[in-house]
Amino acid sequence: MTVDRPAWLDTGHQGPLDDKLGIRITDYDPDHVVATMPVEGNQQPFGLLHGGATCALAETVGSWAAALGAGPGRQAVGVELNVSYLRAATSGVVTAVATPVRRGRTLATFLIEVTDEQGRRTASARLTCMLQPA
């Protein structure tokens, strides 16, 4: 089931980098935020999905998950991101799913799995966000 963006979240566009990379949030469920990103336009010189684009996708989806968990009047700021690249993506769309590892009052940690259109894992990431007043 897909969950729409909560009304209390900013209804403006996503960040400029997300727009440039084509990142789109498709599910705002706090227990599994989902985002997609095209490979086309986000490759490194050898035609593979750029690791930096994968990091941006992971941080975006994890940060949204942290913001949803933090609730209205609070914000999430990434303090640590670790990414392991497992398989190259060369075309199509990759999908990232962020699930909570731990949600605390001031820190929240998420596991982010990135897969290609065949469902094969291309990257695995862990993001920790600090939660603070907006």
Defining key terms:
134 residues; six-stranded antiparallel beta sheet; alpha+beta; Thiol Ester Dehydrase, Chain A; 2 helices; 6 strands; single chain; 19% helix
Description of the molecule:
The protein is α+β, with helices and mostly antiparallel strands. It has one domain: Roll (Thiol Ester Dehydrase, Chain A), CATH 3.10.129.10. It has helices spanning 16-21, 51-70; strands at residues 24-29, 32-38, 74-85, 93-103, 107-115, 121-133. It has a six-stranded antiparallel β-sheet. The mean pLDDT is 93.
Can you tell me the overall shape?
globular
* Fraction of residues in β-strands: 35-45%
Oligomeric nature of the chains: single chain
Domain unit count = 1
Which strand order does the major sheet show? 1-2-4-5-6-3
Nearest-angstrom radius of gyration?
A: 14 Å
Please estimate the helix content.
10-25%
Low-confidence regions: none
H-E order: HEEHEEEE
Q: How many beta-strand elements? A: 6
CATH topology: Thiol Ester Dehydrase, Chain A
Q: Sheet bearing the most strands, described?
A: 6 strands, antiparallel
- What CATH first level would be assigned? Alpha Beta
Quick one: CATH superfamily? Hotdog Thioesterase
